[in-house]
Design brief:
heterodimer; A: 8 helices; 0% strand; B: alpha+beta; five-stranded antiparallel sheet; elongated
């Protein structure tokens, strides 16, 4: 993203238009409040703008880099709050694509396909595996914390997390095949 | 490490990938990862699954005001950055041609800055016969003006004759230059000293002249001895200074 170093505001606007929606959705999913999600996005995108091009293309796409920054910031916000009360839902019906397909660009359609695969994989996971993955990724909880919350041994959480993630990865690999 | 122990490591790799590894285990796992190809491959294999997780989130439309606030901050940042860059460029340009100004600005005596000090020095030198004094300032007719500095203790007299924008600097009583040295004239405009491109040298009779293409805004003309090829900034103190009064 050479435009970061050039401080090109117009290019940044295009960047926001492309990834801002997914980033906001993620922040909202983690934080569960619109105001907090907006603050998170503002801070995360400004940090990207001011980062001067720390993006490393060998470690993933611009989008995954951006979303990981947003996710980490949102988790930091959660952790900084005295009481950890993330919006955690395990209802797969909530994971739906709200926009009609004809509004999607080709790139978005591919992402939509991926999203569908991930949703499908998540929905097929045994509930206990889906829970530990969502608690870790969207809730920012560590394995020990999850073990405490679910009242199960740490080793069980570790096993469920790995199995669940392997299954999602397997579904993605099948989709690509 | 046996297979069972390694399986436990792989479980930690999955937790690490998703950001759920206990913080006190992170450092040790990272050390292990650095030297374990199998765990590195596992991490690479799992990464797309982790990266896909946020894509599965229910879409929420961000409010338009969020973009407005964000872009307002970005544009303010960009404008400030541009302003900083321009100021930096101006400073670099001034540095490139303002060495003598810097030198003068560096002279602080009894709280006087270089401008009054330069005037004071000139007055003292006039009295003491240092570098000479100006006579016939602005004198002339038909659009031509002459500013002169009479011979001082160094025996050098200077005269600047202007006509229109153009000026001619004439020196007399100049000693022969050592090999590899030239005379370089400088003009001061708005406190910034710029080199005059035409380098010059005295003839056998000690006369030396150069042309100043633009006298617009010039408040003083100075001369220094410089290495062959000239300098971007004065490297020696001027031995001639002719104040130009507008």
């Amino acid at each position: 993203m050479p435009w970061i170093g050039r401080k090109d505001a117009e290019a940044f606007e295009v960047f926001y238009d492309r990834h801002g929606g997914a980033a906001y959705s993620l922040a909202y999913r983690v934080l569960g409040e619109r105001g907090a999600a907006e603050d998170c996005i503002q801070e995360a995108f400004i940090s990207i703008w001011r980062s001067g091009g720390k993006f490393d293309p060998t470690r993933g796409s611009v989008r995954s880099w951006t979303l990981s920054i947003v996710r980490n910031r949102a988790i930091d916000v959660l952790r900084s709050k005295a009481s950890k009360a993330p919006k955690m839902t395990f209802d797969d019906d909530e994971i739906i694509e709200s926009r009609p397909a004809e509004e999607l660009t080709e790139e978005e359609a591919m992402r939509d396909e991926t999203a569908t695969e991930v949703r499908g994989a998540l929905s097929q996971l045994p509930d206990e595996q889906s829970k530990v993955i969502q608690l870790a990724y969207f809730g920012g909880f560590s394995q020990s914390e999850i073990a405490g919350m679910l009242n199960v041994p740490l080793g069980t959480v570790k096993g469920r997390m790995r199995l669940g993630l392997e299954k999602i990865r397997g579904e993605l690999a099948e989709g690509l095949a | 490490m046996n297979e069972h122990e390694h399986d436990r490591r792989l479980e930690e790799v999955a937790a690490y990938a998703i950001g759920g590894l206990d913080p006190d285990r992170v450092e040790e796992l990272e050390k292990h990862l650095a030297g374990c190809k199998r765990c590195q491959e596992e991490l690479r294999w799992l990464s797309p699954a982790v990266q896909a997780l946020p894509e599965a989130v229910e879409r929420q439309a961000p409010p338009p005001e969020l973009k407005q606030r964000l872009m307002a901050e970005v544009r303010a940042d960009a404008a400030a950055e541009e302003k900083r860059t321009r100021a930096e460029e101006r400073r670099e340009r001034a540095d490139a041609r303002g060495g003598f100004g810097e030198w003068l600005r560096g002279l602080h005596v009894g709280g006087l800055t270089w401008r009054p000090l330069a005037g004071l020095a000139l007055a003292i030198l006039v009295i003491a016969g240092g570098i000479g004094y100006a006579v016939g300032s602005g004198g002339g007719s038909g659009g031509a003006h002459t500013w002169e500095v009479e011979p001082a203790s160094n025996g050098i007299a200077a005269k600047v004759v202007t006509e229109g924008d153009r000026g001619e600097l004439h020196l007399t009583g100049v000693e022969q230059l050592p090999k590899g040295r030239v005379l370089e004239a400088w003009v001061e405009r708005d406190g910034i000293v710029e080199p005059v491109p035409a380098l010059f040298a005295p003839d056998q009779a000690g006369r030396a002249s150069t042309t100043i293409e633009s006298m617009k805004g010039v408040s003083a003309v100075m001369v220094t001895r410089e290495p062959a090829g000239g300098s971007k900034k004065p490297t020696t103190k001027p031995f001639v200074q002719v104040p130009i009064e507008s």
